[in-house]
Amino acid sequence: MQFRVPNGGDQTKRLGAVLHVLYLIFNEGYAASSGESVQRNDLANEGIRLARLMRTLMPHDLEVAGLLALMLLTDARRSARIGPQGQMIPLDKQERILWDRGQIAEGVALISAVLPKGSVGPYQIQAAIAAVHDEAARSEDTDWPQILALYSLLQRMSDNPMVRLNHAVAAAMVHGPATGLELLGKLDADERLKGHHRLEAVRGHFKEMAGDSRGAVASYLSAASRTASLPERNFLLEQAAKLGPELSDESSLARW
Predict the structure, then answer these.
(1) Which of 13, 42, 123, 231 counts the highest number of beta carbons within 10 A?
(2) Which of 59, 2, 1, 47 is nearest to 23 (CA)?
């Protein structure tokens, strides 16, 4: 069988599939879904390498540029995501001085150059969201209204439950935890998120924001029981214990 480069709509369809695979490779490297490590640097690095190759081969494709920018802006935080004992450190607690400013500058320049050029796709929007996070000097300086607007736009482009979950996070940061919990209630009916630990982890965070310590502990423990990532499980159990040992089911903690 002779190999040929696809043209037109066929190329667009195949390109979308290739970019999605690269995104999955990078995402698994940046935030390992199972095992004892927070991240797998080999996969993250390979995802970026392949995205750079795609950018070289297709320099005028806006979504290729968007994906590379997204990877760079996300990976820039890699060194700040793990504590001295290998524990997870959430975005709002990271030492931003550890972020890779070279990667941030490259990613911001790339997404700033492609956004005005034409049709905006999901990877470009996600890169823009990552740029807003990276450009905030402190967690409290994050422009959450802008992030909420970008997630609202992304929701209209893609019926992805994780996008809706992240939209709920942004909404809670702008309008308060009650709004976030209301949006999570709607997500409970989505079969694609049924039993997913991140839904319960976010619910725990919103309950903690609302001052419902008992409810937050229950959600954090539920999330911990559902994840296959040991660092993530430990983080969730620590969040539960932090709110008060008397609220945590000690037998549940002992099982992990």
Answers:
(1) 123
(2) 47
The 3 state secondary structure assigned to 177-199 is HHHHHHHHHHHCCCHHHCCCHHH
Does residue 158 surpass a pLDDT of 60?
yes
Residue 210 tokens, joined: 């609302």
Q: Strand, helix or coil at 107?
A: helix
- Rounded (10°) angle between helices 197-209 and 177-187: 160
| Of 157, 150, 163, nearest in space to 111 by CA | 150
Query: How many Å apart are CA 38 and CA 135, to the nearest integer?
Result: 24
Quick: pLDDT tens for 58-99.
Answer: 999 999 999 999 999 999 999 999 888 888 899 999 999 999
Residue 135: per-residue pLDDT: 96
Cα–Cα distance between 111 and 87 in angstroms, integer? 31
DSSP state of 226: T
The C-alpha R_g of the chain, in whole angstroms, comes to 19
242: CB partners within 8 A, 6+ apart: none
pLDDT per position as a tens digit, 167-176: 999 999 999 9
Cα(first)–Cα(last) distance of the chain, in Å?
53
d(CA 256, CA 223): 12
Amino acid sitting at position 251:
S
Percent of the chain with pLDDT over 90: 73
C-beta pairs of 180-187 under 8 Å, 24+ apart in sequence: 180/206, 180/209, 181/206, 181/207, 181/210, 187/161
How many residues are listed for the chain in this entry? Answer: 256
Question: What integer is the mean pLDDT of 210-214?
Answer: 95
pTM: 0.89
- Single out the residue of 63, 40, 192 nearest to residue 128, CA to CA: 63
